[in-house]
Amino acid sequence: MHSFGYRLNGLLTFAVTILALMCVIASLSDNLNIPSPSAEIQIMNINWFQKQPKGSDEVILTMNISADLQSLFTWNTKQVFIFVAAEYETRKNSLNQVSLWDAIIPAKERAKFWIRSSNKYRFVDHGKNLRGKEFNLTLHWHVMPKTGKMFADKIVMSGYSLPEEYI
Amino acid sequence: MSYFTQNSLLSFLGYPVSLQTFLPLSAPSLHFTMDWQGQKLAEQIMLLVFAVTAFVAGYVLGSFQMMVLVYAGGVTLTGLITIPNWPFFNRHPLNWLDPSEAEKHPKPQVTVSSKKKGFKK
């Protein structure tokens, strides 16, 4: 407490410690928010279903994705990362997950949307198991905060299947 | 950590702490001094009040940026009030002991008694 420098240091240290505490409380306040999201995915068309030369099955499909994820946003949300994954079971693996499409939602206004798109990432199997395969399409989301803990959850939509024979 | 907060923290934790009165060697050149205890208290209270206000403002308005801006403004205001030696906070200054006077009365030496575990006669 002798000089300008000492007092400035003391003040700034205390101020930054309190700022850290405020960020912790802000992150805890996210738990007060109870989200109620909804989503729906339709497969419009299977464009391509073949096995790669000397390789595994590959699918290209067009999806219609519509969702309302506005209730996920709080004052402490920076962005929401969403992706659609196809999940199915084979003889070798009890769960296969293939990410087909993803997006970043930067603000609450953009969280209610619909989009028609083919899969961004290749839907390739480990092997040749996809003929007549039933699969789920799951919409996962990660709520990324400005400070604190990230929340992740998903909606599982079932009842999709691939054709019995290659197209 | 500042001297006083360190002192009060140590005394809170139970450590023996001696609060030495300062004999600033440059006393004649310190024209304006502040009440350091009061300054520390004022700083702590102002920062806490601004923190609570900023958090409530941010939460109600739903804007994280608002919280940080209000808090930053609060920190600056607190700094402006507590850090510089404002003359109007020094209406009743302490009378420091003159250095030449202090030399005539040296501080008593504390005799350190050595502890011996056992006497062997």
TrEMBL record, chain A:
Record keywords, A-Z: Endoplasmic reticulum, Membrane, Signal-anchor, Transmembrane, Transmembrane helix
Highest taxon of the lineage: Eukaryota
Signal peptide from the UniProt entry: none
Localization per record: Endoplasmic reticulum membrane
Record InterPro entries: SPC3
Function: Essential component of the signal peptidase complex (SPC) which catalyzes the cleavage of N-terminal signal sequences from nascent proteins as they are translocated into the lumen of the endoplasmic reticulum. Essential for the SPC catalytic activity, possibly by stabilizing and positioning the active center of the complex close to the lumenal surface.
Protein name: Signal peptidase complex subunit 3
TrEMBL record, chain B:
Disordered as annotated region, ranges: 100-121
Protein name (Swiss-Prot/TrEMBL): Signal peptidase complex subunit 1
Domain of life: Eukaryota
First and last residue of the signal peptide: none
UniProt organism field: Gossypium darwinii (Darwin's cotton)
Function: Component of the signal peptidase complex (SPC) which catalyzes the cleavage of N-terminal signal sequences from nascent proteins as they are translocated into the lumen of the endoplasmic reticulum. Dispensable for SPC enzymatic activity.
Subcellular location: Endoplasmic reticulum membrane
PANTHER family: MICROSOMAL SIGNAL PEPTIDASE 12 KDA SUBUNIT, SIGNAL PEPTIDASE COMPLEX SUBUNIT 1
GO cellular component labels: signal peptidase complex
An annotated GO BP: signal peptide processing
Membrane-spanning intervals of the chain: 12-33, 45-62, 68-89
Record-stated family: Belongs to the SPCS1 family.
InterPro entries found in the cross-reference section: Spc1/SPCS1
Membrane-related topology note: Multi-pass membrane protein
Ranges in coiled-coil conformation: none
Record key words, sorted: Endoplasmic reticulum, Membrane, Transmembrane, Transmembrane helix
Chief location category: endoplasmic reticulum
